[in-house]
Design goal:
Elements: E1 23-26, E2 37-43, E3 55-62, E4 68-69, E5 74-79, E6 90-93, E7 97-98, E8 103-110, E9 126-127, E10 137-142, E11 148-154, E12 173-176, H1 186-189, E13 190-193, E14 216-217, H2 220-224, E15 236-248, E16 251-255, E17 268-272, E18 284-294, E19 306-318, E20 327-329, E21 346-347, H3 361-366, E22 372-380, E23 390-393, E24 408-409, E25 421-425, E26 440-452, E27 455-462, E28 465-467, E29 483-494, H4 500-513, E30 519-525, H5 540-552, E31 559-561, E32 579-584, E33 590-592, E34 606-607, E35 614-615, E36 620-621, E37 636-642, E38 645-653, E39 667-668, H6 675-695, E40 701-706, H7 714-720, E41 729-730, E42 743-745, E43 748-750, E44 753-757, E45 773-777, E46 794-799
Parallel strand pairs: 8-9, 14-15, 17-19, 20-22, 24-43, 25-27, 29-30, 38-40
Antiparallel strand pairs: 1-19, 2-3, 2-12, 3-8, 4-7, 5-6, 5-10, 10-11, 12-13, 15-16, 15-18, 16-17, 18-19, 21-39, 22-23, 22-26, 23-25, 26-27, 26-28, 29-46, 30-32, 31-32, 33-37, 34-35, 36-37, 37-38, 40-44, 41-44, 42-43, 45-46
């Protein structure tokens, strides 16, 4: 559920061992440092929300002792993804003469600034129309011959001087910290600070009186410090000693062999080399470099930063040294189990009053960033995913609600199960096993502690031995003659282009594991050509292919009903036009009442009273033009009969959690922004339910589907209602805590899918020898690495008529 882009440290390879000691190695500079005009500041947030200044700008400075004639010169701009050698996307012509020690302001494009708080820049010395990125890009000063005089790449720019400067946002600029000096290293020369535009009328600076920045001698612990951000960020450091603990294509990790006595300071660090430097595990090094905070995904993501050394000058002092013993999580140090961050600091990188690894898990892991760690007898709490990532908890000292199969249950916002870590392999020769929930990596799993995709990651250099727990897919009980079996199943972007094996396996789940429900609400059925975004919205091909596979597997000849959406209006994979679909089994005396079938924009209503209550459109949609359904699936309502009794079903697929703060992100406590829309959707469905039960207080109604929210959420509470006469029963809440999950996300077993029933269905009819309802989450997917969907289906068997048969 996260949309973070792929980052630079994804695949790793072994590096040859160096046999030479005292060898100094450094990365080649991008170009010679400028001795005349330098870029002193770049700001791309102009006019954006929260910005102080209305326009983007580039500020130049004459660091030489001679006037510089800018006739024919230009400022050039590239987006941050453009590689070296590509033509600039925009340029701005310069003119005039810049005196020694003075600035030159180049005004660029203005933003909308809806809040109206931004102010105009000081009078610019040149004006252009470049719309600059607020987070990262590349700018250069070109002389009249087209030569690059100075260059700044920031915010993850693909090309820069040595290493890109930190990213920015609407409120910060990339600013040269010592304006008279250029080390030819953007990461070292620039910091992200409040923008301070200066033009040629600003006071001059006498560079002959300025002192160049000095190198700081520091240990790894001093660089890491007792906070999420290093106090040495942007500074050049030297004399940094450590032994290489792991190597990758873009850099290596090193760890001090003379640690301090403060557990809050990490003794490990990542050295980013662009792949230019050959070192080997066990090499003892002395490093001179620049300290940088790297934020995976760029400055606008919710990710924490990782403290790194960039543009290193490396001396190999000796080889084949023993590695520091790993910290054993759950044994040597135990994470705060259910507290990610105490209090409400907003941004833990800047606003947290305390850094306390003993009470806050986000500080606990930060205090070991880059260090060797291990988990003993690691227990899989999620399956190995397609990226080779396995969420685990230590085999010791875990305090959590455990699922029936060995996972950890997300049982409340105050139970984030903070002892979870994600194991992935650092060495391409070490293959991540395909594990299911409950499996164990016996023995030690050892690696370095990294951070990516809003999670702390154990980048393993060696893995324990997989000990399978033998997890089996569950099989539910078949319904009896007088029970109506109603199920829901998110089939994860089912399209005709999927392999036939997916249809066959889903069909097997419907027939074997779910025992052929009488009514089945399916979510994420795509249109006839899947993700091709060409205006096709009908899904007959997709549905027919699944129905045929079910029949071939020995199941019933299901019939289907649905309402085609408007093109590209229901969210999901672009072009896929996912929707909910009802399947039903006429051979079980289940009939669908077709009543003026609705369309994408027509709302169904309720007419009649008592036993004569009926829908105006069946199948139909609930208020599909309401703003709460923007870019989201609209509920599908159907009127069914089963052996003479009317049953209403409402199939839902509420909007996803995309855009919410992650549990281990920089914003604490995390905000659930997507909840606002889901709450609005729940209110819409609840209003329809109230209307339906006003017409018939004894209406038999099943509300089901992927609500994308937990059983303890406001969304679920709104749907349940507050009037005892019309309250729905949310069936996941009736299960023991260890069984309350339909989905596993980053190792947290949780409820996202629900079946709710109206009061009339919670009371068994006269003469019934069955309970009124028999509910089951059928665990067939979410805990398995070999999934047919990422959701587990669920089913309820309802005692509609009296008698046992």
């Amino acid at each position: 559920m996260s949309t973070t882009p792929l980052l630079r440290r994804l695949a790793f390879a072994a590096t040859p061992l160096l046999a030479v000691t005292g060898l100094a190695i450094s990365a080649a500079p991008a170009q010679a440092a400028s001795t005349s005009m330098v870029i002193s500041e770049a700001f791309g947030g102009g006019g954006n929300s929260g910005a102080k200044w209305l326009n983007d700008y580039v500020e130049l400075f004459n660091a030489s002792q001679q006037p510089v004639d800018l006739s024919g010169w230009k400022v050039a701009y590239w987006s941050k993804g453009q590689e070296k050698g590509t033509a600039p996307s925009s340029t701005t012509a310069l003119s005039g003469t810049v005196q020694p020690g003075t600035h030159y302001l180049v005004q660029e494009d203005a933003g909308a600034n809806n809040a109206g708080t931004a102010v105009t820049l000081p009078t610019p010395d040149a004006t252009g129309t470049i719309a600059m990125s607020s987070s990262g890009a590349r700018v250069a000063v070109l002389d009249d011959a087209g030569n690059t005089v100075d260059l700044l790449g920031w915010g993850g720019a693909a090309y820069s001087e040595s290493a890109p400067a930190p990213g920015t946002d609407n409120t910060t600029s990339s600013t040269r910290t010592a304006v008279c000096f250029d080390s030819d290293n953007n990461a070292a020369d620039f910091a992200s600070v409040d923008p301070t535009p200066r033009n040629s009328s600003a006071a001059a600076i006498d560079c002959t009186t300025q002192t160049p920045p000095t190198l700081t001698t520091a240990t790894i612990a001093e660089i890491q410090g007792t906070s999420h951000l290093s106090t040495l960020t942007g500074k050049a450091v030297e004399g940094v000693n450590g032994v290489v603990t792991a190597v990758g294509p873009d850099g290596f990790w090193m760890q001090s062999t003379t640690p301090d006595d403060d557990p809050a300071t990490s003794e490990g660090i990542y050295v980013f080399t662009h792949g230019d430097i050959d070192v080997a595990t066990g090499d003892a090094l002395t490093v001179k470099a620049t300290v940088q905070e790297y934020r995976p995904g760029g400055s606008r993501t919710d990710n924490l930063t990782t403290t790194e050394l960039v543009d290193p000058d490396v001396t190999v002092d000796s080889t084949r040294n023993p590695l520091p013993a790993p910290v054993r999580l759950g044994i040597d140090r135990v994470a705060p189990q259910q507290t990610i961050e105490q209090g409400d600091p907003s941004n833990v990188e800047y606003d947290s009053a305390t850094f306390d690894p003993s009470s806050s898990a986000i500080d606990f892991y930060e205090s070991m960033e880059g260090m060797r760690v291990a988990v003993e007898d690691a227990e899989a709490v999620g399956p190995t995913n397609s990226y080779g990532e396995l969420p685990v908890v230590p085999g010791q000292n875990v305090d959590a609600v455990r699922s029936i199969h060995g996972g950890v249950v997300y049982s409340g916002y105050d139970h984030p199960n903070a002892m979870r870590v994600i194991v992935t392999t650092l060495d391409s020769d070490v293959r991540m096993p395909r594990a299911d929930v409950g499996d164990v990596l016996g023995g030690s799993t050892v690696g370095v502690l990294d951070y990516n995709f809003s999670n702390f990651m154990l980048e393993a250099t060696s893995l324990g031995t997989l000990e399978p727990a033998g997890l089996q897919r569950e099989v539910t009980t078949a319904q009896t003659n007088n029970q109506l079996a109603v199920a829901t199943f998110n089939v994860e972007n089912l399209a005709p282009s999927n392999p036939q094996s997916k249809f066959v396996r889903l069909a097997a789940q419907v027939v074997h594991n779910l025992k052929s429900p009488d009514i089945l609400a399916l979510e994420e059925i795509q249109d006839n050509n899947g993700a091709q975004d060409d205006g096709v919205v009908d899904s007959t091909t997709t549905v027919d292919k699944l129905v045929a596979a079910i029949k071939a597997a020995g199941g019933p000849a299901y019939e289907a009903r649905w309402v085609n959406p408007e093109n590209d209006q229901d969210g999901g994979q672009p072009g896929g036009n996912i929707r909910s679909v009802f399947l039903f089994n006429p051979a079980r005396d289940v009939a669908f009442v077709d009543r003026a079938p609705g369309d994408a924009t027509t709302s169904t209503g309720v007419e009649g009273s008592g036993d004569e209550t009926h829908l105006t459109h069946s199948p139909g949609r609930i208020d599909p033009t309401s703003s709460v359904w923007e870019d989201s699936r609209k509920p599908l309502v159907g009127e069914f009969t089963f052996r003479g009794r009317t049953v209403f079903a409402i199939a839902n697929h509420f909007n996803s959690k995309g855009g919410d703060d992650p549990l281990f992100g920089r914003w604490q406590q995390p905000e659930r922004f997507s909840e606002t829309q889901r709450n609005g959707q729940a209110h819409e469905v609840r209003a329809f339910l109230d209307q339906l039960m006003t017409h018939d207080p004894n209406a038999r109604v099943v509300v089901l589907g992927d609500l994308n929210d937990f059983e303890f959420s406001d969304t679920a509470d709104i749907l349940v209602g507050t009037d005892p006469a019309t309250e729905l029963l949310d069936l996941p809440r009736t299960l023991p805590a260890a069984e309350r999950y339909t989905y596993v996300y980053e190792g947290n077993s949780q409820v996202l899918d629900h079946i709710m029933i109206s009061p009339a269905l919670t009371v068994a009819p006269p003469g019934a020898l069955h309970p009124a309802y028999d509910y089951d989450v059928v665990h067939t997917n979410a805990e398995f690495h070999d999934q047919d969907s990422d959701h587990d289906p669920q089913i309820v068997r309802l005692a509609i008529r009296g008698g046992l048969g």
